[in-house]
Design a protein that fits this description.
Blueprint: H1 2-9, H2 13-27, E1 38-44, E2 49-55, E3 57-60, E4 79-82, E5 88-89, H3 105-117, E6 128-133, E7 137-144, E8 147-154, E9 160-167, H4 175-178, E10 185-186
Parallel strand pairs: 3-6
Antiparallel strand pairs: 1-2, 1-10, 2-4, 4-5, 6-7, 7-8, 8-9
Length: 188
């Protein structure tokens, strides 16, 4: 197993990501993942190699009336692929698969509008962006470690207003979490 893991790790970022994409496409051909929508990283320990696709822009649609309507809090935006056992989470889990967020064409247009009008430099450096849609505006949140920015974007004019910024001291990770027996370690 160790040889298999070392072999995968030695193939380089692009090849490892290609392997993960191939696993997803083979098992779930209707799922379309665009690299520019995700922060992609590889993690490994002595038993597993996992490629994580973390969606950078998370769109939260307006709440809908009705007891059985799925809310945005139920949605899963990220995917991880275990290259050893070829398990794709959440898509291989019959209970979680339905919660995986797939954006409609309208939602893609809304996200593009927000990206165009957001009064910050959009980066692909592990920053997370949340977009909440309301009747007349979008709430835009940007997070990176302990730095937060949020503001509203007018749906018609694209004007930014009600801007808030916060830089906080990062939380200390408890030693118990750092001393896991065989933790996944980020490779790229």
């Amino acid at each position: 197993m160790e040889t298999q893991i070392e072999n995968i790790k030695s193939q380089g970022r692009d090849k490892v990501i290609e392997i993960a994409y191939n696993i997803i496409n083979d098992k779930h051909p209707t799922i379309e993942l665009l690299a520019e929508d995700y922060d992609i990283s590889m993690w490994a320990n002595s038993k597993d190699v996992v490629v994580k696709f973390r969606r950078q822009f998370k769109y939260y649609y307006p709440q809908k009336e009705g007891l059985h309507e799925r809310t945005y809090r139920d949605l899963i935006y990220d995917i991880s692929v275990n290259l050893i056992n070829q398990y794709v989470s959440p898509l291989d889990d019959c209970f979680l698969k339905e919660r995986f967020y797939i954006s409609s064409e309208e939602e893609k247009e809304r996200i593009a509008f927000v990206k165009k009008h957001a009064d910050i430099i959009i980066t692909h450096n592990c920053r997370e962006y949340d977009i909440y849609e309301y009747e007349e505006h979008y709430d835009f949140y940007s997070r990176l470690n302990s730095s937060f920015i949020n503001f509203k974007i007018d749906k018609i004019t694209g004007e930014n207003y009600d801007r808030n910024e916060l830089n906080a001291t990062p939380a200390v990770t408890p030693k118990s979490l750092l001393s896991a027996e065989d933790p996944l370690t980020r490779i790229f």
